[in-house]
Amino acid sequence: MNAKRLLVTVTIVFSLLWSSLLASLHLSGNAGFLDRMEALLTDIRSIAIGARTPPPIVSIVAIDDRTAAAHGYPLNRATLARVVDAITSLKPKVVALDLLLVDHGTDADDAALALALQETPAVIAGAGVFPESTQSVTSDANDPLSAVPVANQLLLPLTRFSDVAAVGIVNLATDQTGIPRYVPLISRGPDRVDQSFPLRVASLALGINPVFVPGGLALGDRHLPTDTGQRLPLTFYGPKGTIPTYSAMDALDGKLKAKAVEGRVVVIGSTVAGGGDVFPTPFDPVLPGVEVMSTATTHLIAGDSIIRDSNIRRFDAIICVVLPILLLGLLAWRRSAVGYATIIALVLAWGALNMLAFAEGYWFSAALPIAAALPPILLFGAGELWIDRRQASHFAAQSDLLQRIEAPGLGEWLARDPGFLAHPVRQDAAVVFIDLSGFTGLSEAIGVTHVRDVLSGFFEIVDEEARAHGGAITSFMGDGAMILFGLPQPASDDAARAASCAVQLCARMRPWLATHPILDGRNIGFKVGAHYGPVVASRLGTGNRRQITATGDTVNVASRLMEVAAARGAELALSATLMDAAGADSAPLRSGQLEGPAQVPIRGRSESVDVWLWKGHPL
Fold first, then answer.
1. DSSP 3-state of 261
2. What is the pTM for the complete model shown?
């Protein structure tokens, strides 16, 4: 299995394991670490959709700053009774007090409030006290209340009030930022079970007893899906005051209009500044608690609450598993503009559908697919980066090796200009040949392994000096090499660099042959020839195999000059043409012993060549 397939397999397996874990936690309602992210994305969706006009079901009568300034705060029970009486006279459907009536007032005041509550369908508030801000629950298919947390204590109204009015629990489930996200429709105390405040109000207003069924609530013939723990998901209609709100002072002064009350649920609660009963929402940092209760009540009566139930969570779990696999498949399929465009289109489509569903009242998780997809995608990206770097290193090593063998420096030029030498080019160039003397016979005596070691050292010296002087090794021929100066473009100092390279090759070869352990005591030497003149540079070969080389009389002469050097006891034979082109400060003139020029016949050529002979100083 290649690295890419292994990476794809590993990331898909990891994605399945990771997303399955998240899906399992989400289905059980225990993915708490995602709540903050989901809360932020929910707020973004709510703000993007904007405020809505609530159905004309609930009105709020607020014990506000004006009421407190005139009658004190908290209102005494007699004044509160007057508020209830004023509202009752305008024929509301239900009067609900979002106030905890747990302490005794004066007997007369308490009696007045009890009498006022007795005159109208009424609901009063209770509250659960929990030991911690978060509660752990268990799941038991045989116990429909197993997912409902148990309060240590229930703060219930005085008996004289609960005898004449229904009691509902006002607890809320908030996220880490304090925003109410759910209303628990059932609350459990040590020895009793109570409906929530909004549910009590809704059932009283509709004249229907609620029936809890698996995953939902039945109010008559209407089914309301609920989330885990029989919780009602909350979405807000808008900022403070979106639900019609009137001052209790208007009720006391007889200025409360009938159309604000008649046939409606009226919730009485505190909005006094500094009263403490406020919550942040996406639309408002200080929404009064009475408006949160009124929002939940409206949801229950109108049936317009957002749906987040077990079916929604199961769909979330499927998306959580499938979406990362799709993205990984697209990433593995093709790394191109089309592939990335497809990925972006898929993500945007999912985001648009998620937003559209939210606007239509379906709360699909936005955080869960993101959390499921990001780690596998990051793992895949890191793996691909690692593979790419390994491949880049491999290709760089191959390229370096190719450059060492196939003309150093020309590979980069071909990369920039693929048409280089596509057609033969005639130009002036300097050519240097070097060859080991007596090596052919030696190779039979020292064996294949030693031959390889010797030739590797020889090639290394030639390669280093060719590179150092800007030459291109156009070929290695067994125990010899040809170095060309003038490619990829001719330069004025080609001859000078060729002469310097030839001298340095001699200077390097002499001690190397003398000290090499395999060649110790062997009669091995070397010879170098160098010439300058016109050559024909071209690519040779067909198909996938090409060789850059130079041909012509200049190349032949340079090769024959090695024979001249060997025959006349020199290390290096240089043509006078090259010496003239190299200039008066060339390397052969500055070091070693130089003799010449002398006319020398060249095998296979009718005309003689003026030749300089050079040898280095002995060690």
1. coil
2. 0.65
